[in-house]
Model the fold of this input.
Amino acid sequence: MFTGIDEVDWASLRHAYGSAEDVPGLLRGLASTDPVERAGALDGMYGAVHHEGLVYDSTLACVPFLFALATDEEVAERGELVEFLVSIGRGHGSAEAVLRAGAEVFVALAGDRDPGVRRAAAEGLIRFLDQPARVLGLLRQRITAERDDRVLLALVECLGLFVRRYPAHATEALDTLLPLGVPPYDPGLRLAALGQLAACAPDLLPADLVPTVVGLLGERSERRRSGPRARDDNDCPDTLAGRLRRLRPSDEEGAQLVRTLHTALGERVADRIALLEGQLTAPDSTDRCNGVWMSAGLFREWRGDHSALVALVGEQLGAEAYRLRDAASSVLGELFHLAAPAADHLHALVIARPDLWTERWERGAPALGGGLKSLARSGDPRATPVLAEVLAGPVVPDDLGRVIVHLGRSAAPLAPALRHRLGRVPLDSPETSDRALPLLSALTALADREAVPEVLRLLRGMPDGVRSRQRVVASSVRALDAFGVVAEGVVPVLRGLLDSECAGVAAGALWSLEGDASAVLPPLLRALAGSDGQRRRVAAEVLARVGVSARVASDGLARMVEAECAEERVAGAWALWRVTGDAERVLPVLRSAWTGHPRVRGAAAASLVGMGAAGTPLRDLVEAELATPRRHLARAGGHGSQDVLADERLLGRCRQVVTGGEGTQERHAGEG
Done:
């Protein structure tokens, strides 16, 4: 099995973490009789030799030994090894060629006695055996002979892959695929067939696709309930670890079936919404849970009026199934103000379950629980009294400030408690930053002028050795900037920071309070000429606020608009406009950033709002954005927790440009 392994110069080969000299040990671990050692070895292979799907020279050197392991029936869990081999060759030219050279191995493994091996080998046939007629014949043979439902599902998926990979043979493959989508086949198999048809031959889908799919989901769930007992939501303890496990689908197969179908339907948003409505009103909680997760994908990718669907997701918060409740809470938390149709359900959950108001990650600070966070992010003022009770507890959640900002002035009653807590933060403790930062961000969001003494206490009293001192100083200065009040002692503290690493934010706060360009321009010009891109962006933001009084910075800003980083170019362009009014220099920069870097469109649109009529030549970009149904970050593969919020903010700014609404001329160009 390992013949020749010691003859390979592994030390000269590389993987994700350097020398591959540890790879022989990992390969031998895959053949261990100890399941823990096998699992650790496979984790090591994925983590180093095939890190994040990448292929290294050591990865290619492993292939012959992986083939030997996969074909040795004495090796346990060979299906996982076959999956690993297929993953290595998937989409990698050099690796694909190596796997093609061993394609006959997949032919043999497709008929292996182990169903896990047969399941994984099917995709290998499609990808690495470059004989389409023979491949299709093998697939037909396996479908006829196969008795394992999971392997049959894999074979159906492979038929769809075959059609997409070999369009010249599509007709023969579809002749095999189409009959699998109708009775008497198992409902799961029929769902799989419909999903593949949607992906490769949508014109062959039934006219009544949505009711057909909803009916098949119901049939499949009924069979699951009457079969061997499936893992139940209540099997997971109501702990954070249990909640994290519940965020994964309890029915992985069902989740994959509906995910395939939703992905294939793509722009057929009306059909997807109708399908989701069927999933979210299904009697089976697992089907509803899968519907919640599929809804998240729709919300992230497509704009539109989703209020009815959001309300249905909200209804799942009252379910007894923990997994379903946690999934709904998580999805609603990504919607911010778009979660408003579910606010009543969120509030009911928050009131009924005080134990879910906070949750603690292992080795991390506590955070707000999903339901309370979602309620606050939706802007519902009913979150405020609950947050006040949380503030009365022993520890302030780390994300409190980032949540309070969405409540606006309705969160003002929290200010006295926040000030009190900030005034009690120790100044020289390893916990100073962990305790101070969430309080500072919350008070900044509220622009609470009465908190000046507590903020000055931090700035004056923290010794140099405190962990994350610079972050606390920067956050404190931003708070003073937001307060905008010239209180005793504030100006000297800010002036004392003009030669520090926080010079940019200190200059911004000082400008807000005094409006003295001669005091703030020297540190801003130094930052503009430096090598730190983040400091240059901060300096540009402040220079934009200074405006025409900062003309001395024109050359530095002109260099900034030619920077490699799109965020830096946009920040520089906005500042250059505010300082010089040179629209001819600025507009091409904004157009290029808008078209080439979707993540900076929010900042570019904010600049256009501030430019008013001078931004008219770019109105075509804004109008095209408003007419586009797909969210702008979806095109860049964005699936972050705030992508929906960023897109909604972009749309709001685009509407301002079209209607001529005036935007702030302060920090907007630096926002995302």
Notes: Residues 554-670 form one domain. Residues 34 and 438 are 46 Å apart (CA to CA).
